[in-house]
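Sequence of Tetratrico peptide repeat group 5 domain-containing protein (Exiguobacterium undae).
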Amino acid sequence: MEQQIFVRLKTEAPPTGTAPFDWTEVSRLRQEKQYTVTKDVVATYIRQAPDDPFVNYQMAWCHDSLGEESAAVPYYVQAITPGLIPPYLQQQAYFGLGSTYRALGRYAEAEETLTAGLVRFPNHPVLQTFYQN
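Predicted 3D structure, token representation.
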């Protein structure tokens, strides 16, 4: 899944309405596994566009990449609450938040998040894997 995020970030423009930041640089840093530097770059974007769901999703990903799951949660929530466009990012955000809650032992919240993701995206195979009825 990590590679899929890189490919989409590199080949697709961020959603309409997303602040015009250098996502090519973010993608390059991730591919080079420079996660701390990536987080520093995205943090500057967060300060400029704190309500942008795409930027929040990227910051959540940065924290998760560094094993900072607790710090990732509010960014995932901020990304999901207003809704991410396009749908593949919505799916990844639900998966990211749900799996982060699981890693933190917050199982009820994980179940709630993954269930909400499945309601929105019933055919998403990754969400189905993490939450079976």
